[in-house]
What does this fold into?
Amino acid sequence: MVEYSQANSGVNMNKKGILIVFSGPSGVGKGTVLKKFINDENLKLSYSVSMTTRPKRNGEIEGINYFYVSKDEFKKAIDEQKLLEYAYFVGNYYGTPIDNVNRLLNEGKNVLLEIEVQGALQVMEKVKDALTIFIVPPSMEELEKRIRGRNTETEEVIKERLDKAKLEMTMLNKYKYVVCNDDPEKAALTISNIIKRSME
It folds into this structure.
């Protein structure tokens, strides 16, 4: 079951940078593609670190992959309207802290939000000029293979992720750009070129 809610946006519309929304189904390889272009200085990118209540996975780093908080801390951030958007999925919350986004935009950075589709749709409503990019797998079979390859989740959670992915794939037309991740290098190059054109 997926629940979604939002706070008042509070996004600074007089921003100097571009707000980039980067979405795709779980297991599509967003993180792998992202690593290949996030450090390209020509793109002036800054990764907006999301807040989550889910446990840290092996190799993940606090403040780099996510801000890991308790459910009570997350609910406090919701109550204080400190999140641009948030979603509840597979027993955990995920959200985007507003203050961090505004600070980076004001520094002239192009801020990249890697967020759930529900949250992305709400950001699109609030920030009309956001650059929106959706990553798709070569096939649903390949997506299932990638999710199972993690060996980190129960069969129940895997099924929930796959069901959610099928639903998310119906939202493609909401995004300005759709990029297939059949080859992470190619996908990263395509996205880099999209961002460069948007900066002109």
Remarks:
- The radius of gyration is 16 Å.
- The beta strands are 2-5, 19-23, 45-48, 50-52, 66-68, 83-89, 92-97, 110-114, 131-136, 177-180.
- Confidence is low (pLDDT under 50) at residues 1-8.
